[in-house]
Write a structure and sequence with these properties.
single chain; 228 residues; MetI-like fold; 8 helices
């Protein structure tokens, strides 16, 4: 158990920051992607052309990162890009990869959450003279985020566990440190079990926070799902 402080230190310095930073950037990218894919087609031919190009780019991005393994994405960005003249530090490469991967999956969650808000709320807001941006920001988006909290929380918990893949690109997160310690004490069962327990503790805390957020954001919602 003398190695426990080293594992906790690795989790505090790399595992948790990597997950938080990647999720924040991934969530911002997911919101942008979802909004772009939901933008109505403009009336003018010129604007409609660029609208189609933009939507095609974001659709391709979502398809690409949802269709390829995360580990392969890590290898392409960290080991592959140097062949194209782009050399990235391991931590930055991990953040970029995890953010892009999270953004692709979370964008579909946010898009579905926005679409789940009744269409008559858009119409009611328009009758009050609100613009599309105002309706989305003040009416639709708050409700959509409440709906999206459970799946987004699950994505974040999954991301915390996926950070163990960063060991493959030399980042000294918890799993990497456990491998290094195992190479010295030859106790793989003990070391990997300790790491598993640490991940379980982190994920349990996040699960509790998820339930807390769900209760907080649903306190004004009736059983029928209508805001009080």
């Amino acid at each position: 158990m003398t190695s426990l402080p080293d594992l906790i230190k690795a989790g505090a310095e790399y595992t948790i920051p990597l997950a938080i930073i990647s999720f924040v950037f991934g969530l911002l990218l997911a919101i942008l992607t979802a909004v772009v894919k939901l933008i109505p087609k403009p009336q003018s031919n010129f604007a409609a052309f660029w609208w189609q190009i933009l939507q095609a780019i974001f659709s391709f991005y979502v398809w690409l990162f949802r269709s390829t393994p995360l580990l392969v994405q890590l290898f392409i960005i960290f080991f592959g890009l140097p062949n194209a003249g782009v050399q990235l530090p391991a931590f930055l490469a991990a953040i970029i990869t995890f953010s892009l991967n999270t953004g692709a999956y979370a964008s579909e969650t946010i898009r579905a959450s926005i679409n789940s808000v009744p269409k008559d709320q858009w119409e009611a807001a328009y009758t009050l003279g609100m613009t599309s941006t105002q309706v989305l920001r003040k009416i639709i988006f708050p409700q959509a985020m409440r709906i999206a909290i459970p799946p987004l929380s699950n994505s974040f918990i999954g991301l915390v566990k996926d950070t163990s893949l960063a060991s493959s690109i030399t980042i000294l997160e918890m799993f990497t440190v456990s491998q290094q310690i195992t190479a010295k004490n030859y106790q793989p069962l003990l070391m990997y079990s300790i790491v598993a327990v640490l991940y379980a503790i982190i994920c349990s805390v996040l699960t509790w926070l998820q339930h807390y957020l769900e209760k907080r954001t649903s306190k004004y919602v009736s059983k029928e799902g209508v805001m009080n």
